[in-house]
Write a structure and sequence with these properties.
The complex is a heterodimer of chains A (about 250) and B (about 325). Chain A is of the alpha/beta class and about 250 residues long. Helices cover about 40% and strands about 25% of the residues of chain A. Chain B is mainly alpha-helical. In chain B, the strands form 2 sheets. A two-stranded antiparallel sheet of chain B has the order 1-4. The longest helix of chain B is centred in the last third of the chain and has 27 residues, at about 210-235. Chain B is globular and about 55 Å long. The N and C termini of chain B lie close together (about 10 Å). Classes of the chains: A alpha/beta (about 250), B mainly alpha (about 325).
Chain lengths: ~250, ~325
């Protein structure tokens, strides 16, 4: 394991908002092909951490290396080109545009400029088929049921053909049946891409994650396999033992 | 745009509109013939405005500066240095594009209301400059171009832009070109990105698009088209004055686009046409009903704007698209 370079690594990564250290000296190594879950109580800095990784916000200190390349100061839109895709915690689709247009945008982002409109269309429809939304292509995205909007959000991320897909609380607000489908979908994605998953639902985490990183007050509290994390006394103290909501 | 894209009716509709405007010159009486030529030029201004406001969602309150850049950029070299019509026209467009690039690089650091105010301030500077440099522009009084200055002449061609029919055809050519450019942009991947920025800029950035560069491109295209309208105006109608750089000419394209339908390709033309006739007719009506009161048609225009925003926020073609013709670009 030590000889393999990680797909993504952060060193001493910090971000403060005023006096609050939302992310505090985080060293994170994510291996290629891994499904990594990031868990922690509310306000632990999970979303801030992945926002630093995808470039939505700039770090106060520290560095981020992706595929051996320092991307600390690379703008967000260029990180997408390098293969980092982010799906939002609060569903962020284009509610006034058609479902088709929602995925046509990421598809055209990674297509060559001279790709035909027919080729574009085929790829966008394929992305919708993967999440089971092909039948809704001409609907206005805002008119979709909430669960379908979450799926559309993932389809947009997938259409970027990312090497690292960041899913920020993807199952929030989904029904049990929808969660089941979702777990299947993420497993499928995980066969080709590396997945960084922020998730509160511990069942989902335990089913999917190969490695878990636990954050608390912006710091890494523990890291390891699901079994190791479950057995960790500090984690139980901070999170698992106290939280009755999961 | 949808998965089921209807390219054929879209192109047919636009070509039909262009053909109808061509045909109109043979049937319209003199008075309306002249108005339509003027409206077609102003509609180009509105279409330029629509690229930025309708598609990219950036509300500029300073587009008079781009129209005036084209107007003076084309007119002053002719008046002062005896340039010919064709290079002057190109120079006017270049002035507008360069101004839009410069203003855009500064103004696009802001968004929303701040963007409106910054563009407004730049346009005020432009307006004051046209007054301040009165030695060159003669300020409010303005300058007129004489007939020989508005003739394109070479060994094989003789085009007199002061001629009524030639003027109509020139305005029609410009309108057709700008309309087709707008249509191509609206249906292109670039157009889709502009709409995406309007709808959700943060999402668009996180889908990997350089939103700043796309907005700046929209600004330059919008400024260049507005300047083309300004340049055509001075060449076809022979007059340039500081009024064209005033706030009124920043509000008018907004109004035309709102009336016809923002982010529709044909809305700006329809809006400019209707608003022009509304102002004309209301002027006559005001004079007839309140003789000597010297009431301004601007009031009518203002009332129209208020009614529009209250009852038809999407404009005429925007509402038509929403209710009946979903494929309308």
């Amino acid at each position: 394991m030590a000889a393999v370079t990680p797909l993504l690594s952060t060193r001493n990564l910090c971000r403060s908002f005023g006096g609050l250290k939302a992310v505090d000296n985080v060293d994170l190594d994510v291996m290629r092909g891994e499904i990594r879950a990031i868990i922690g109580p509310n306000g632990a800095g999970k979303t801030t951490l992945v926002s630093l990784i995808c470039g939505r916000i700039a770090p106060s200190a520290g560095s981020i290396v992706f595929e051996g390349r320092d991307i600390t100061s690379t703008p967000a839109h260029k990180r997408v080109g390098l293969g980092i895709a982010y799906t939002f915690q609060i569903t962020s689709i284009y509610p006034n545009l058609s479902v088709f247009d929602n995925v046509a945008l990421p598809v055209q982002r990674i297509s060559h400029a001279h790709v035909s409109s027919r080729g574009l269309k085929a790829r966008a429809m394929h992305a919708l088929e993967r999440v089971g939304l092909a039948g809704e292509a001409d609907k206005t995205a805002g008119a979709l049921a909430y669960g379908h909007q979450r799926l559309l959000e993932v389809a947009m991320g997938l259409s970027l053909r990312p090497r690292l897909l960041i899913l920020d609380e993807p199952t929030q607000g989904l029904s049990d049946g929808e969660i089941e489908n979702f777990v299947r979908l993420v497993r499928e994605i995980g066969e080709r891409a590396t997945v960084l998953l922020i998730e509160h639902n511990m069942d989902v985490v335990m089913q999917l994650a190969e490695q878990i990183t636990v954050l608390n007050f912006g710091k890494v509290l523990a890291q390891g396999t699901p079994d190791a994390i479950r057995a960790d006394a500090r984690v139980q103290d901070a999170y698992l033992g106290t939280g009755g909501d999961d | 745009m949808n998965a089921s894209d209807r390219a054929v009716p879209v192109w047919l509709l636009h070509l039909a509109v262009i053909a109808a405007l061509w045909g109109a010159q043979f049937v319209l009486p003199d008075y309306h013939h002249g108005i339509l030529a003027r409206v077609m030029v102003l509609a180009c201004f509105a279409m330029g405005y629509n690229i930025l406001f309708g598609y990219a969602g950036l509300l500029s309150l300073g587009h008079a500066m781009f129209f005036a850049a084209g107007l003076y950029g084309a007119g002053l070299p002719i008046y002062h240095f005896g340039w010919h019509v064709v290079p002057s026209f190109a120079f006017g467009i270049g002035c507008g594009a360069l101004l839009a690039l410069t203003v855009g690089m500064l103004a696009l650091r802001t968004a929303g209301v701040a963007f409106m105010i910054v563009t407004l301030m730049f346009a005020q500077v432009g307006n004051l400059m046209t007054l301040w440099m009165a030695d060159w522009t003669r300020g409010d009084e303005g300058l007129t171009l004489s007939r020989p200055e508005r003739i394109i002449e070479s060994a094989t061609v003789f085009i007199d832009l002061t001629n009524r029919d030639t003027r109509y055809v020139a305005a029609w050519l410009l309108l057709s070109a700008v309309l087709l450019i707008t249509l191509v942009i609206a249906r292109s991947p670039f157009g889709r990105v502009l709409v995406a920025i309007r709808e959700n800029e943060e999402r668009t950035r996180m889908l990997g698009f350089n939103t700043y560069a796309n907005k700046l491109s929209a600004m330059v295209i919008s400024g260049a088209i507005s300047a083309a309208a300004g340049a055509a105006y001075v060449l076809l109608f022979g007059y340039m004055g500081a009024t064209f750089a005033s706030i009124q000419y920043s509000i008018l394209p907004l109004l035309w686009v709102l009336l016809g339908g923002a982010a529709t390709t044909l809305g700006p033309l329809l809006g400019a046409l209707l608003m022009f006739y509304l102002a004309e007719l209301s002027n006559d009506a005001l004079n007839a009903w309140f003789p000597g009161a010297n009431l301004s048609q601007i009031g009518i225009v203002g009332v129209a704007l208020v009614l529009l925003v209250l009852f038809f926020p999407k404009g005429i073609l925007g509402s038509v698209r929403e209710r009946w013709l979903g494929w309308l670009p």
